[in-house]
Design brief:
Oligomer: single chain
Strand content: 5-15%
Order of helices and strands: EEEHEHEHEHEHEHEHHHHH
Radius of gyration: 19 Å
Distance between the termini: 35 Å
Number of strands: 9
Structural class: alpha/beta
Bound molecules: NADP nicotinamide-adenine-dinucleotide phosphate
CATH superfamily: NADP-dependent oxidoreductase domain
Shape: globular
Strand order of the largest sheet: 3-4-5-6-7-8-9
Low-confidence stretches: none
CATH class: Alpha Beta
Mean pLDDT: 97
Number of helices: 11
Helix content: 25-40%
Largest sheet: 7 strands, parallel
Number of domains: 1
CATH topology: TIM Barrel
CATH architecture: Alpha-Beta Barrel
Length: 327
Amino acid sequence: MKTRKLGNSGLEVSELGLGCMGLSFAYGPTIDHKDAIKLLHAAVERGVTLFDTAEAYGPFTNEELLGEALAPFRQRLVIATKFGFQNGDPIIGVDSHPDTIRKVAEESLKRLKTDYIDLFYQHRVDPKIPIEDVAGTVKDLISEGKVKHFGMSEASVQSIRKAHAVQPVAALQSEYSLWWREPEQEIILTLEELGIGFVPFSPLGRGFLTGAITENTTFDKTDFRNSLPRFSADARKANQAMVDLLSNIAREKQGTPAQIALAWLLAQKPWIVPIPGTTKLHRLEENLGAVKIELTAGELAQIEKAAAEIKIEGARYPEELQKRVGK
Ligand SMILES: NC(=O)c1ccc[n+]([C@@H]2O[C@H](COP(=O)([O-])OP(=O)(O)OC[C@H]3O[C@@H](n4cnc5c(N)ncnc54)[C@H](OP(=O)(O)O)[C@@H]3O)[C@@H](O)[C@H]2O)c1
């Protein structure tokens, strides 16, 4: 697989990474441990070098899973993890106190069975802690060799600029896809100006953009998507128009809607690296196939024009979680 550079950081990764959250967390019952290990190995064999996890996924179990599965290949991989919640639990609230960041780094290193974290993201900005102190703490961890690069997630341009002045930010990880284009307003321009890479999360719209989810889909009661207004049955019905658009382009390009959703992201900037997540080998292969689909300027314009006609319904987060983004 080809590689991409995340901004000016020097961090080079496969053009598609693997989002590992769903292997332990968020989308209903998880798969068997053995199968999760197999999926991670399959991704390594297929050339994926960027693996995305967080203390919060589980909490803790996703990092442990990656530690177990990826230790044999450690040196050729880029492992990204995240700090920033109280006791690692997003339900409790944010916590980026410098002592917490240091503690999480030590514990993540143990769980990941490694002596360095390639990319250490702040999961959400903590309004109680000056962002300069967060960047300064990560800077210290970098000088100690425990962390290689600093990342942020769902941060505002103001926070990105302030943090970047203390410790250069290698990558921002925020949601971006054909049904969530807010980063185009100012985030992407700022990243380009500062030379920061962009790692879009939920690049398949948490599964919706693939066409596998319809208004009739029922999610397991533990599935996080039950709480998202954009996944209400009415919103899913209304938003099907975006899936239809992707399906039409997919037919023309002999691909699948998931592949078009990813190819569209890859076509936006050469320093964008999406991290689709899946628990299934055949979908991993399908998603990685997106790198072979090149959308021409004409096709991108066609998508742009058609997408502008579609009004996406439903907030992407419930109110409580919306308050944590863009800080
Ligand atoms: N920084 C943050 O705050 C944040 C927030 C959310 C996510 N993330 C990161 O971003 C990664 C990716 O995001 P995500 O997992 O939320 O969403 P996503 O990658 O947009 O979609 C994942 C969902 O789509 C399904 N799927 C994947 N490929 C498919 C295909 N080809 N056809 C049909 N369905 C398919 C998966 O189900 P199956 O497993 O059944 O295939 C899963 O339910 C996460 O794993 C995590 O590492 C970060």
